[in-house]
Each structure stands twice: as C-alpha cells, then as structure tokens.
Design a protein that fits this description.
The structure holds two protein chains of two kinds. By secondary structure, chain A is α/β, with parallel strands linked by helices. Helices cover 36% and strands 24% of the residues of chain A. Chain A has a domain of 154 residues: Rossmann fold (3-Layer(aba) Sandwich). Chain A contains nine helices and ten strands. In chain A, the strands form two sheets. In chain A, strands 6-7-8-3-9-10 form a six-stranded mixed sheet, sandwiched between helices. A four-stranded antiparallel sheet of chain A has the order 2-1-4-5, with helices on one face. Chain B is an all-alpha fold. In chain B, α4 crosses α11, α13 packs antiparallel against α14 and α17 runs antiparallel to α18. Chain B has 24 helices and two strands. In chain B, 70% of the residues lie in helices and 1% in strands. Chain B has three domains: 253 residues, no CATH class; 244 residues, no CATH class; 87 residues. The interface between A and B is large, with 54 and 56 residues.
Chain lengths: 255, 633
C-alpha cells in the first residue's frame, strides 16, 4: 500500500457503552489522506466520544482506530505523534501564559529549545495572540482558548488534525483566522477531521462529510454524495430525524 | 420564598449525596457528633466551676470551627450560591434571610445543635427558668454561629485575590490549627483544680461564644439584668451579622467579574526562559518542573494549601514555646516536610482535565511524574533543611540531632514519592480550574480527606529511618544513632524513585481511564468485554460486586476509630501516664488508678487493631473498582 493510499484516520467497529447506553455503536469511518473531513450530528450523537476514542483519550469497548496505519491503542507512541487534537471544553495548564504553555509543551514533546521558541513565536503571531502576552490561559476568552488549543495541536507538526467543535462560540474574526490556518494546513498536505453542527460552515470547508446520529454513522462520503441536490442541512434533518414544528404551544407569550 | 430555597437546598443535598462525598459527609457527622457528645458528657459531669469554663471553651472552638472549616474544607460546596439568584427581583435582605434559613438544612447545623444542647443539660440542675433561658440562648447561639461562618467565608473569599494574600491569610488559620493540635500542652497553663485561670475564664465569657452560658449562669443566680443583656447581645449580634452578610451578597451579585486583568508578570518575548527558571534544563523534565512551579505560585488554591501546610507545621512547633518548651524546634523541618505533602496530595486532580495533554503527548508520563516530584522538592526541601539547621541549635536538645538529620531526608524523599503515588492512585476528581466557582475556597471535602490521609502514609516512610537513632539511644551508642542518617537518605531516595516509578507506570497504563474519571467523576465499572485489541491486559473483566454506601462508610468509620484510638487513647495516653501528667482530658485510661492502666491500654490497643482489621476485612469482599469509588484501596 502506498503512503497516499493509507487513510489518515480509519475507525472500524468503534463501540462505547456508558451505563447501558451505547453512546457510540459500531462506528466505521475512513478519512482519506489530504481530505478536509466534517463530522456533523445533533448534540449527544456521539461525536465527541468518537473523537476521543479515535485519538487515544478514551479506551473503546470494541473496535479500533488507526492513524496513517498505526493503531492508536497498540502502537500509541507512533500514532499519537502524528495527531494534533483540539478538544472541546477540556482544561489546559490554566495558570500559564500562552507562550509558556507552548514552550513547555514543545519541550515535553521532545522538540529542542530553539525550534520550540521559533514555532511558538510564529503560532502566537499568526493566531493573533501576541497582544495577550501576560494573560493567563484561565483568563482567556472562548475564542482565545480555541486559538491557543489550535496552536498546541499544531506545535509538533502533526499530519492529522482532529478538532472538536473548533468554531463553537467563536467570534467571526477568530473563526476566519482558524479557517485560514486549516485551509493552508490541508493545502500543505495535512488532513483535518472536525466536528460541528453548523451545516453552512461544513458545506463551505469540507471535501468529505459524515452524519452521525444516535451513535451510528448515518451517512458518509464526499460532500456532493452526502449532501445531494437539496443541500446538507436538508439531508441532515432528514437523517437525524428532526421535526420542523414550533407553531403550537407557548400561547401565553403573545398575550 | 424561604420555603422554595429550602426545597432547593434539600434537592441539592440529595443529589450530591453520592459516593465519596456522602462518605465524607457521613464521617464529618460521626466526628462532629462524637465531639458534640463530649460536650454533653462534660455538662453531665459534676466538675463544679470547671464545667462552665470547659463548655465556654468548647463553644468557642465550635464557633471557630464554623469559621475555619468552610474555607479549607470547601464545606460551602452544597450551598446555594447568591449569584444564582442575581437576576431575580428579590431584595437582598430577603435573599439573605432565605439563604440563611436554607443553610440550616444540612448535617453541620444539626450536629452543632446537638453540641449546644450541652448548654441546656448544664442548666438542668438550676431549675426550669434556667432551662428555658438556656434553650433560648443556645438557639440564638446557633443562629449567630451559622451567619458568622457565612460572613467570614465571604470576606476571606473576597480578600484572597493574589498569591501573596493567599499566603498571608493562611497564617491565622494555621496558627489556630497549631493551638488546637497542641492544646493538651497548653491546657495545664490555663487550668487549675477549681477551673481555669480567672483571667481566661473571664475572657471566655466576654467573647460572644460565651454569652449564652453567661445568661444561663445569671438565670441560675436570678440576676435578670445580666440574662437580659446577654440575650439581647446575641440578638443584636445576629442582626448585625445578617445585615453585613446581606451587604456582602449585594457586593457578590453586582460585581461579577467578567474580564480579569492580565495577571502574569514578566511576559515579553523572551520571558518564558528568563529569571531563575532559566537554570532548569530545556528538557521534558525541566519543562514540567517549570510549569509546576509557575502553577503553584499562581494558583491561589495550590498556594493556599501549600502555605497552610507549611505554616501549620511551623505553628505546631512554635506554639509549645508559649509554655517554654523548645524541644519541638528540633523537629520543625521534619514536621514541615511531612505536612507539606498534604497540600500536594491531588496534583493531577488539581489540573483537571488538562491530563489530556500528558496522555496525548506520547511517552511523556515519566517526565511528568518526575518533574512534579522535583518541583515539590524544590519548594519544600530548602525550607525544611534550613528550619532543621536553625531549629536544632535553638532547641537545645542535642540528643535530637541524629533523629532530625535521619528523618529529614526520609521525609522529603518519602513525601516526593507519596504525593505522586496518591495523586495517581487515589485521584479524586475536582472541577476544572476554570470552573471552580470561588477561586480560593478549597476543593470539596473528599479531597481534604485524602489530603490528611497523606500523613500516616508519610509517617510510614520515615519509620525505617527512626530505627537506628532509637536503638542507638537505648544502647547509648552515638555511632549507631548517626547511622540513621545514611539509612534515612537511602529510604528517601528509594521512596522517591519507587513511588515515582509506580506512579508513571500507572499513568502510562491507565492514562485514558484516569482522564475519563476526571471528565465524568468516578466510574464504578468499566466494561472491557469484547475489547481484545491492544497489548494491555483488560484490568477488570470479572463481574463487579458494587460496594454499598453504608458499608463503605462503616469501613471508613472503623478505620478512623481504630487509628484515633491507637494514636490518642493508647499512644498519647501512655506517654502522659508515664510522665505522671495530671491532665486527664478525654483519655479514658487516665481516669483509672496507675496500677490498672497498662491492662486497659492494652485492651484499647487490641480493640483499635481489631477495628482496623475489621474494616479491612469488610472491604475485601468487594471488587477493586467498587472499593476505589469510595477511596478504599
């Protein structure tokens, strides 16, 4: 198998059970190298759980996850070196400044001092975080947290980026910055998987998309294949089983 | 309004009564009731004038406990936060009254009510009018104590806004802790056969905590002017405190900080590897050390816990100076090193879900654990070495030198091993730093419990180092005594290396599971069936036998009763008995004639060991994950 043919991420038969509920129920997903892959699905569909299992943060009850052919659970050192993760809502070393965080993370990941310093400088500049030089991460705004998280994910030069809700609660300016970086990462040969429930965004950015509902992959493939002629939002509501009502009830609001 | 708030509080209490938190609460109740029972028992004894003095002292301790407890044990965890009601159109005084009423729903107020019942029991001998006055006075006293606690917690919480303030505010509490811990030394100072020293006795009644007893005593004498004044004093004090608290609530609900000023100094482009921290190597371990040192200094919670532990150690050895006892100075360094472990018992939990960074950065677990150990040593070792070097000559106890220098390296190494071991193996999930509501007011009670469980563990690591000085002293051989120093060094290094190795192996093998616990609280069962891929053995394929809450509480209670009996009723009592001390306090054996004491002490020791073994046997029948859920290994 050639390098180009090896998928960036390959999930097969992933299962996770929380207290009798199958949060993730036999998920198969293949993310081709060089693709910009969107995962969409309603809240609680199992997106975050799948992502955490994919990168090696949550041990699955069944199935496997491979990053460029390396099994995340049997060959973690190799696999984890190839991935950069931007998690949603997890803590960071909160009492450090952005630069301190990146510096220590780089040294911890085994980069030398000069490389760490120059990469941290470049990332802070590109992500427009230089102005917050003496602000601790705990005092960052939501958008800044996403950006420093992205910087941490990119620091060691991964080949696959896995992003959990990178645009959630982010202002348009920060979102544009993040988009530009992701675009250039993919243009440079990197692969991106990200979850979102903003359909318009996914339609704009992605080459591939998967709809996850109730712990299963309801549809997956290239954007054109999944979205069909009527658009992704329509297909999503169809697959995820939404009901467009809202006319009834709440009668007291108008009176 | 009040009714709704009380119902909310009941629901909150019911929802938080799970797992470790319920155990902590149950334990607190058991301890509190035991202490409360002691007061009632004292009131029943016929000790003449001394009874009143002792009760006044007890009431003062209760009031102080209400002030100190919530700040360091985070007892306000289940309380309703005024901020939650900020958007509702409720006048502050109504809200204060309602929240206060709701805060009486809970274990603390009930236990305190039992404790204050001692005042009523005390009045029984003085007629029915005195009893009526006592009931009124004790209820007022409870109101005052609870609202006093609210005011203190709010004021302290608001005052601790920087590391420096956190460190300073730890001093009075630590001093208080030292006085309480060494009170059995101080008791002879104030007590005489017929009660306390008159000055002390008066002081205890001038303080508001003694006003209730003052009223009871006055009622017994028929001095109605004093009765009226004392009761009115309590009412006025309560009103003033309630008013203060409603003001504080207004402040809390109208000055919600949404943007905080930049708080790290020395930024700038080259800032990261500047200052003294640049001396650390630019390696993975060096990075972790620097991260830990910066975090400890900037995280109010960690700064507060560590400085409290250090000041507490200091005050334990400095308070005896009041009675002219300098011997403790020799042990200052060792005691500080031992106590400093309690402030660092939850290193991973303190970082919250940031554990994902370590799990995802491949192969960094070892560097992470070693770095944390080194950072702790850098913070504690220099201080405790200096304290030992200075304390030894000042103590005048030349015999103590081999002891101190043997125990110190053992304590430091043992501590560095124990903190990472406990942080990984007895991880009690805490909220993420970003989500901890009030920055300075501790974690929840369960983390406090684990923190103090560090002490016996650390003591265990210094025991081997004590053998040579002891044997050397018995055989009168200085050479043998000093042989303890290399032994202490060796056990210290061994504990450090071994504890760290166990911790980082566990972190590497169970990283995702520890992370899962940080994300979602303790997981009782992890189902690995069907999970065959991967080289690591499934840890728990056998069916789980869950451990009931009642049983876990019973086990903990047995452990604690066992250890307390062993240390206090047998250990301390033997020392007191051997020294012919006249103080009896709560030491059962001392109430017996000298001849019968050894037999009773032996019986108590046997009982204590039986309790501990019994607790251990009780917990054995259950699977490890089920036991771990309750912090039982």
């Amino acid at each position: 198998m050639t390098a180009a043919a090896t998928p960036a991420l390959e999930l097969s038969g992933l299962v996770k059970v929380f207290g009798g509920k199958r949060a993730v129920d036999d998920v198969d997903l293949t993310v081709p190298a060089g693709s910009f892959y969107g995962l969409v699905g309603p809240n609680g569909a199992g997106k975050t759980t799948s992502i955490l299992m994919a990168v090696g943060l949550l041990r699955p009850d069944g199935g496997s996850s491979r990053v460029f052919g390396a099994d995340v659970w049997s060959d973690p050192l190799h696999a984890k070196g190839l991935v950069g993760l931007l998690p949603d809502g997890l803590a960071m070393p909160e009492r450090l400044t952005g630069r301190e965080f990146l510096t220590y993370l780089g040294l911890l990941r085994g980069l030398d001092e000069a490389t760490t310093a120059s990469r941290a400088q470049e990332l802070l500049a590109v992500l427009d975080l230089e102005g917050a030089e003496s602000t601790l991460v705990v005092d960052y705004s939501t958008g800044m947290r996403k950006k420093i998280g992205l910087a941490a994910a990119l620091l060691h030069g991964p080949r696959l980026l896995v992003l959990d809700e990178p645009f959630e609660a982010v202002d348009p300016v920060s979102a544009a910055t993040i988009r530009a970086i992701l675009d250039s990462f993919v243009a440079g040969g990197g692969s991106v998987v990200f979850s979102s429930h903003v359909m318009v965004l996914v339609e704009h950015l992605c080459t591939h998309v998967a709809i996850i509902a109730r712990g299963k992959v309801a549809a997956a493939g290239t954007l054109a294949d999944v979205a069909g002629p009527e658009g992704l939002e329509h297909r999503f509501v169809q697959v995820a089983g939404g009901q467009r009502t809202g006319g009834e009830g709440l009668s007291w609001l108008a009176s | 309004m009040v009714g709704v708030l009380i119902r909310m509080r009941v629901s909150l209490l019911r929802n938080t009564l799970t797992g470790m938190q319920a155990v902590t609460l149950g334990l607190g109740a058991v301890f509190g009731l035991a202490f409360a029972g002691l007061g009632v028992w004292l009131a029943l004894l016929d000790l003449g004038a001394a009874t009143g003095d002792l009760l006044a002292l007890l009431f003062l301790l209760w009031a102080l406990g209400w002030a100190v407890g919530p700040v360091f044990l985070g007892g306000s965890g289940g309380a309703l936060a005024p901020e939650s009601f900020a958007a509702l159109p409720i006048p502050p005084r109504t809200l204060a009254t309602g929240l206060l009423a709701a805060s009486f729903v809970g274990v603390g107020p009930v236990v305190t009510l039992v404790a204050f019942a001692a005042g009523v029991v005390y009045a029984v001998g003085s007629g029915s009018v005195a009893v009526t006055v006592a009931v009124l006075a004790m209820l007022l006293q409870l109101l005052v104590v609870v609202v006093f606690s609210k005011v203190v917690v709010d004021l302290v919480g608001a005052a601790i806004t920087s590391t420096a303030r956190a460190v300073v505010s730890a001093i009075p509490w630590a001093l208080l802790g030292g006085v309480v811990a060494q009170s059995w030394l101080l008791l002879p100072l104030v007590s005489r056969v017929d009660g306390f020293d008159p000055a002390v006795s008066t002081a205890l009644r001038v303080l508001p905590s003694g006003w209730g007893l003052l009223a009871v005593d006055a009622a017994a004498r028929g001095d109605w002017l004093v009765v009226g004044a004392a009761l009115a004093g309590l009412v006025v004090l309560f009103a003033l405190l309630l008013l203060t608290w409603s003001r504080l609530i207004v402040r809390r609900t109208t000055r919600v900080v949404t943007v905080r000023p930049a708080s790290a100094r020395g930024g700038g482009r080259a800032g990261v590897r500047s200052g003294p921290l640049r001396l650390l190597p630019a390696s993975p371990v060096g990075a972790v050390v620097a991260k830990e040192l910066r975090t400890t200094v900037r995280d109010l919670n960690r700064a507060l816990l560590l400085s409290y532990a250090i000041f507490f150690g200091l005050s334990v050895t400095l308070v005896p100076l009041l009675v002219g006892d300098t011997t403790y100075l020799a042990a200052t360094g060792v005691i500080v090193a031992l106590l400093a472990t309690t402030g660092s018992a939850q290193l991973y939990s303190n970082d919250g879900t940031a554990l994902w960074l370590t799990v995802l950065a491949p192969g960094t677990e070892r560097a992470d654990v070693r770095g944390r150990q080194l950072a702790w040593l850098l913070l504690v070792a220099p201080l405790s070495v200096v304290l030992t070097a200075v304390g030894l000559p000042l103590s005048g106890a030349d015999w103590a030198a081999p002891w101190a220098w043997a125990l110190l390296p053992a304590a430091l190494g043992g501590g560095a091993g124990a903190i990472v071991l406990v942080s990984v193996f007895a991880l009690v999930p805490m909220a993420d730093p970003k989500k901890r509501a009030r920055s300075a007011a501790g974690g929840d009670g369960s983390t406090g419990l684990v923190a103090w469980a560090m002490l016996p563990l650390s003591l265990l690591t210094v025991l081997p180092a004590a053998v040579f000085p002891l044997v050397g002293m018995l055989l009168d051989s200085p050479a043998l005594q000093w042989a303890g120093v290399p032994v202490g060094l060796a056990t210290g290094v061994l504990s450090l290396v071994l504890g760290g190795a166990l911790a980082h192996r566990r972190l590497a093998d169970q990283g995702p599971e520890l992370f899962a616990r940080m994300r979602s609280g303790p997981q009782s069962t992890i189902d690995f069936t069907g999970w065959a891929a991967g080289g690591r053995a499934p840890a728990a394929a056998a069916p789980q036998r869950p451990m009931p809450l009642v049983k876990a509480s019973l086990v903990w209670a047995l452990y604690l009763v066992g250890f307390v009996t062993l240390v206090a009723q047998v250990g301390v009592a033997s020392v007191l008995s051997a020294n012919g001390a006249t103080v009896r306090a709560w030491f059962l054996a001392l109430y017996l004639p000298q001849g019968q004491r050894p037999a009773v002490l032996a019986a108590l020791a046997a009982l204590a060991v039986a309790a501990i073994v019994g607790g251990w046997l009780l917990s054995r029948g259950h699977d490890k994950p089920a036991r771990k859920k309750f912090g039982l290994l």
